[in-house]
Design brief:
Distance between the termini: 26 Å
Largest sheet: 7 strands, mixed
Structural class: alpha/beta
Number of helices: 11
């Protein structure tokens, strides 16, 4: 059975071009292309759509607002596909239930893989999202995180799929579904000071109940939210990688989450999905 897709973009050239591209793959059926978020919501309310590709900036209703409604009222999985890596939209898109956040300049194969991954129940988060999360944890004003126009995603702890490379040559991304730490962009050079800042937030500012977790688990969660890999966390906390993996397993069990990307989102927002 083909994956049923809706495309929402106010640029007719982009939405029709995306339709043509997706139709070249045998896995998809593009049910409709619409001009804005309101039209996307109206269509998904009356049709069975598996994945909705949503631009961010659209008239009448933007992609983030549409994401919230689609998540609350339909079974459609929203995937943000945009030319913008605006800080103001990223966290809201995640909070409202977006299953992915990608830039349009990815190769068609990358977008195809992202749609299939989202359909299968994974989250696909490009490196701009992780950079924003790390910026929040570092206490930087919005917009001061590293901005990038590229990235690949990784599934189930396996090797990264060949993706667009940054100017510096590093592909960066995380696709939810991995608990090994190898699917997350490493925050090389993250300072101990920023880690202390992240884990030292007062309980009144914390979006979740800290009493459920040990102090060490909170430290691990903080470092995951900063984008550190298991190896980097182990080095930061002077523990073995096996011990780090055990802490992550404990955190997943306590939160009923399924992967480390969700831990990062939970640590920042208190939301489990």
């Amino acid at each position: 059975m083909k994956i049923r897709v809706l495309i929402a973009d106010d640029n007719s050239f982009i939405r029709e071009g995306m339709k043509i591209i997706l139709n070249t793959f045998g896995e998809f059926e593009v049910l409709a292309t619409v001009n804005d978020g309101q039209e996307a919501v109206d269509y998904c309310r009356t049709h069975e759509v598996d994945v909705a590709l949503l631009d961010v900036r659209m008239p009448n209703m933007n992609g983030v607002e549409a994401t919230k409604i689609l998540t609350e009222e339909t079974g459609t999985k929203p995937l943000i596909l945009t030319t913008f890596d605006d800080d103001e939209y990223i966290l809201d898109a995640i909070r409202y239930g977006a299953k992915g956040y990608l830039l349009k300049n990815n190769d068609p194969e990358r977008i195809r893989d992202a749609i299939k991954s989202v359909y299968s129940g994974n989250n696909v988060l490009q490196d701009v999202v992780l950079d924003k999360l790390k910026s929040v944890m570092d206490g930087l004003p919005a917009g001061q995180g590293r901005r990038t126009e590229s990235g690949a995603h990784q599934e189930h702890g396996g090797a990264p799929q060949a993706g667009v490379q940054e100017a510096g040559g590093r592909g960066a991304s995380a696709t939810a579904g991995s608990t090994s730490g190898r699917g997350t962009t490493g925050a090389s050079g993250a300072s101990a000071a920023s880690a202390a800042q992240a884990k030292g937030a007062s309980s009144t500012d914390c979006p979740f109940d800290r009493s459920v977790f040990t102090e060490r688990e909170l430290e691990v969660m903080s470092l995951i939210a900063q984008g550190l890999s298991n190896k980097e966390i182990s080095k930061e906390l002077f523990i073995s990688e096996g011990t780090t993996a055990n802490y992550i397993t404990s955190i997943l069990n306590k939160t009923a989450l399924s992967h480390r990307t969700q831990i990062a989102i939970y640590y920042l927002t208190g939301k489990v999905r």
